[in-house]
Amino acid sequence: MNTDETIRHWLYLLQPISLDEMSGIKLMNRTDTKFVTSKAKLAELLELTQGKYFAQQIDGLRIANYRTTYWDTPGHLFYLEHHNGRQPRQKIRIRTYMDSAMTFLEVKTKNNHGRTKKKRISVPSQELPEVLQAGGSPFIQGLTGQTFDDILPTVQNQFQRITLVNYGKTERLTIDFNVRFHNFETDADAQTGDLVIIELKRDGNVYSPILELLRQLRIKPHGFSKYCIGSAMTNGNLKNNNFKFKMITLRKFTGFPFRVPPKS
After folding, report:
1. What global pTM score does this model have?
2. How are beta strands 64-72 and 115-123 bridged, if at all?
3. What is the rounded CA–CA span in Å between residue 50 and residue 62?
């Protein structure tokens, strides 16, 4: 089997869990820890999770498809707040769950204590007129002070996601791969090769079975913002000095074809 086939093999050996069964694990006010690795390591991790984790399954599918559009000010306020390490900081995005065609307008806020809060409303689609009709501007204005008159779409990504839940149902693990970016400002595209982004989501510092497995595989915590890295990859005019070391490190242990675009 090739790596993708091995991932699917171990994934479909896990016990399934439905959305209804996961309803009590929303973790909307949570701590997030991210890890970055390769598809080969992911296959090993899924083998180790046997008997410890459920795999989310919707209509028989365990690999979900997502499309997300990030919105920012013309001066890239949200990107720069993250780049400069400011807390609290926010991001505005519209995310479509492509297998179900459900779409949400979301505001993510990371506070001074490292906790992430996400608030969202359902919208008919990613088309701006429909977002506005669903109350998008007052929603984001109440949380960020911005309206859709102040921001514009900057970067869109598409990716696939596996979601695992531990048997104790105290945490969720999202595993993103096959991430692709498109920049609306530069019309540039980028892909991520074998890169895998793992995010552990839990309320507080409850015991996490996955941490022991990650340590066993020498997969270490490594911050990764799909919006910021996707922006830095596809827009060489953005300030990116604080991300260069991260991008070089990612390339070393994943074989990921990161190139820091030259500034125009």
Report:
1. 0.91
2. unpaired
3. 15
